[in-house]
Amino acid sequence: MSEIILAIESSCDETAAAIIKNGTILSNIIATQSIHEKYGGVVPELASRAHQQNIIPVVEEALNTAKVAKNEITAVAYTKGPGLLGALLVGAQFAKSFAYAMNLPLIGVHHMHAHILAHFIDEPRPEFPFLCLTVSGGHTQIVLVRGFLDMEVIGQTRDDAVGEAFDKSAKMLNLPYPGGPLVDKLAQNGNPQAYQFSKTDVPDYDYSFSGIKTSVLYFLRDKEKHTPGFTKKHQADIAASVQAALVEMLMQKLRRASEKLGIQSIAIAGGVSANSGLRNAVKKEGELQNWQVYIPAFEYCTDNAAMIAIAATYKYQAGQFESISSSPNPRLPF
Ligand code: KG4
Ligand code: ZN
Question: Which atom of ligand 1 is nearest the CA belonging to 111?
């Protein structure tokens, strides 16, 4: 019997739905909320409202694209957390109502597990165990992945996520939200060695990005005071230097974890894994260290429902279902 799962993702500012049939993605639809751009960051209340407006059209499009009828669905999955509570509630409530009406099992998926399991959507699929550097707007983690449902965070940020560091640096460069991809684009025409920023070091495999953010802020403030217009004039070099510093911080701990644990299968995941500087650094390091490197397709880096769908497939197969009275958790433990 075939298993067809409808998966919903609504943890932040993308409303997304996907259909997966026996592990194959049939559709993957995303509505990105542009409303947040003018506020320079995600406004939770507005995100919830936009999810509310988008959810049914997005699900409808996912069903139509997949050429699957509602009554062919065999399970419904949703992002249980972490994320913004109001945003999560919209996806959870929709999934629960659908499951209740159609009498289907419900699957709650951890957003960060899903980012990692996105590596199993297409070939080449990593072999266990592997290390995954999961880098997004809310998280920065090094995860030891032993199995589809067996993962452990071995290092993480103690303050800002690296995506936040990209977005906040972008703001200082007067770029709109979300600035990470714009820093990436500017960096391609800049000199990564033009400026040095001080980096905070923390022990083990942990990270800290608040120091470098402050260092960029003070550097630009000082330059503007003496040379007004400096930021605009040197935007590309600043972007390239910030990106190089952030990527080097990420790589340093990843290298250390790989060496200490003797694991040479290395993956990256999450929104920041779309960054060209990081993708190149991991590839280059892979050649030097003889790593097997896994870099997700662009469409599976930033938030999407295909990753929720693949994660749900493994939970479905393991019989891990969610009670109809469960509710999302904005701080869902890993
Ligand atoms: O995984 P994601 O879509 O959402 C969260 O779960 O947070 O990650 C979004 C983050 C944002 O901070 C965004 O600026 C960053 O990923 N991002 C990038 C790039 N594309 C997305 N950062 C740097 N370079 C990129 N190309
Ligand atoms: Zn994410």
Answer: 6
- Does the domain formed by 4-116+301-317 have CATH 3.30.420.40? yes
- What CATH number matches the domain at 126-296, 3.90.226.10, 3.40.50.1440, 3.30.420.40, 3.20.20.60? 3.30.420.40
The model's pLDDT over 180-220, given as tens digits with 9 standing for 90+, comes to: 999 999 999 999 999 999 988 999 999 999 999 999 999 99
Model confidence over 94-151: pLDDT tens digits?
A: 999 999 999 999 999 999 999 999 999 999 999 999 999 999 999 999 999 999 999 9
Nearest to 238, CA basis, from 149, 145, 169:
169
Is this prediction's pTM over 0.85? yes
Region(s) of the chain under CATH 3.30.420.40: 4-116+301-317, 126-296
- Distance from the CA of 326 to the center of ligand 2, in angstroms? 22
Q: How far is residue 175's CA from residue 218's CA, in Å, rounded to a whole number?
A: 18
**282 Cβ contact list (under 8 Å, min separation 6):** 133, 251, 254, 266, 268, 291, 293, 295
- Round to whole Å and give the CA distance between 299 and 306: 9
Q: Which residues line ligand 1 (CB under 6 A)?
A: 12, 136-138, 163, 166-167, 178, 180-181, 184, 270-272, 274-275, 302-303
Pair 10, 16: CB distance under 8 Å: yes
Which atom of ligand 1 lies nearest, measured to the CA of 162? 12
Quick one: which atom of ligand 1 is closest to the CA of 137?
Answer: 7
Q: Which ligand is nearest to the CA of 275?
A: 1
